[in-house]
Amino acid sequence: MVALGVWREFALPAPPRLVAAPAAFSLAVLLLSAAALWWRRTRPVASSLVIAFLALLTPTCASVVSACSVAAHATRHRWLVITHPVTWSIGAGLWAAPDLGDNLTGPVLIVFAGLAGLYLGARRGLARALADRAERERDLLAEQARADERTRLAAEMHDVVTHRLNLMVLHAGALRVAAQDDGVRTAAEELRSAGRQALAELRDLVGVLRTGRTPRIPDVLPDRLSRLVADSAATGLEITLVEHGDADTISPAVRRTMYRVVQESLTNVHKHAPGAHTEITIHCGPSRARAVIRNTAPQATLGAALPASGSGLLGLRGRVEMVGGTLTAGPTDDGGFQVDAVLPAFVRT
User: Fold this and answer.
1) Is 145 inside any structural domain?
2) pTM
3) Structural domain span for residue 292
4) Overall number of domains in the chain
5) Which end of the chain, N or C, is less surrounded by CB atoms within 10 Å?
6) From the CB of residue 123, how many other CB atoms can be counted at a distance below 10 Å?
7) pLDDT digit string (tens) for 270-322?
8) Where does the Signal transduction histidine kinase subgroup 3 dimerisation and phosphoacceptor domain lie (predicted)?
9) Is the Cβ–Cβ distance between 150 and 210 less than 8 Å?
């Protein structure tokens, strides 16, 4: 750009000027105009104003480039493109030029450059709008696919799992009525209550899958944890629950996670260590909470194997890590098993 301006200034006949100035001054204006083009993309309006002002002193080819840039890249004040042919004409003193036709070449080039910049800017905006629209459509299609999958899962759970649970509850109720032994009736009633609770939770889950909205989950640790332990103990499992600290100091999200840790651990004891003694220790401190579930080696032989997915601990570890905690699980030296979950006391919900 500087070389083109120098060639125009010194190799060709001197162009008309509004302000007569030495060659050094014209060269300095050329350098400043070329430097201002450095910001033509990041700050097109400021660059355009500087070059338009310098064109009043010495018209340069930078006005052509600046007119195209401000029209193509400016998000506001694109009208500034008209200042370039005006300041060029004023700086060149066109009204005093002997041959007006030859001196109109500069303003005409600037006008065409501005029109080209407007076309490029409109094309770039259209391409950006099409890309945004395509991205929104992809997001909508993905969300629709997730919604369809949730609906399909909800239908399967409602048609298959809910039906089986209803049968279990009905059979337990019939057994409670028909049994003569008090112990059998008590066990049947506990089975029926557990089945009804499972049905209620399953219906909530089916509702979540169908609507995609998560209902408010109640606080579950202080009361339901003892109830969970009592339900497991009623099946013949020997459990000791030891609690340290105030459970009210930890947030509801941590309470729910700790409840799920204890629940899954007791389920694994039922499946893999019948007759084992289980000790649950809960620590609730000001900065963190900890749940340790440790069971001894199984004291009874396994009967019919309960169905297991093999991913319970993996899912549990993911749930714990989601709230910023850590979970370790593994066998102990005495042949038992231990699950140790450390959680922060407070998690934003």
Assistant:
1) no
2) 0.48
3) 219-299+307-349
4) 2
5) C
6) 11
7) 888 888 899 999 998 888 999 999 999 887 665 554 555 556 788 888 888 88
8) 149-212
9) yes
